[in-house]
Amino acid sequence: MSGSAAYLGAVKARRTIYALKKESPIPDDKIQEIIKEVVLATPSSFNNQTNRYVLLVKEEHDKLWEIVKSVIKAVVPAEAWESSEKRLNGFKAGYGTILFFASRKAITRTQEAYAIYADRFPPWAEQSLAIAQATLWTALETEGLGANLQHYNPLINEKVAETWGIDKDWELNAQLVFGTPAAGPGEKTALPLEETLKSFGV
Fold first, then answer.
1. What predicted TM-score, i.e. pTM, was given to this entire model?
2. I need a surface site. Which of 66, 97, 145, 191 has the fewest CB within 10 A?
């Protein structure tokens, strides 16, 4: 199997898994090692390294989702809470969560250094985070973990920062929930390639 075939096989195997167990087929230090590799390898504009990460497992993961539940319960209509709680308990049922942040200071620093591109650095930072999220998600999948990506920011930003002593400079971007899959992914459809891909000169 060629290098690209092996890589694309992992990319295609990465799917959104909602049904997760509070288990991991690999030890916590292996999860940390995977994250460290992604931190060091993920590209960023002008190498400004705007991405920040926090790993929560076991009781700390549970704590996060109890925070999310308390925040969401305070803002959703009472009649919608039951379905919301069920969904949030599904995330809590996982083994861990990786929190992704962007450093505002790092973005501002490069905006000042390269003023001509100042308006582009925030979206470029988002792109760097997206690369890291997809890479980590795929890497965890190759180790037998399932995952899904959530976005309860900015509602939970303040409580997350308070609970884990996160620098206020770090702006929460997403939450990657993971654990041993309890069920497979749902059916996935795709638009015809004729509608989404154009090639010229080939």
1. 0.96
2. 191
